[in-house]
Amino acid sequence: MLNIPRILELKTVLASLKATISAFKETCLRQGKTLPKFVKIVEVGPRDGLQNEKEIVPTQEKIDFINRLSNCGLQTIEATAFVSPKWVPQMGDNFEVYTKINKRPGVNYTVNLQW
What we know:
By secondary structure, this protein is of the alpha+beta class. The chain contains four helices and two strands, in the order αααβαβ. The protein has helices at 10-30, 45-49, 59-70, 94-100; strands at 76-82, 108-113. A two-stranded parallel ribbon has the order 1-2. Strand 1, helix 4 and strand 2 form a beta-alpha-beta unit. Helix 3 (59-70) crosses helix 4 (94-100). The mean pLDDT is 85.
């Protein structure tokens, strides 16, 4: 079973996001820049993180991981990559993962597409 850190608890994720935004705000102010009106945060762990695992992560664990992220209040999650399993074996189950995740209203589930 994939050992996903328990940082997926909503309070922890939100605290991390707040800290990141606060640091960004401080950097902008130090540099005399104004803050943007909108910042888009994209969670790429299911794609970028899992594709680097040495062993193939079971499909159902990927689905469960994405569903847990969806419950954290994230607005955009990069769910998988449509790439050749020859080059990125971890993404060989991309279609199954994408079609079986619970797609929550208000959450965008993006994919990485490489031809």
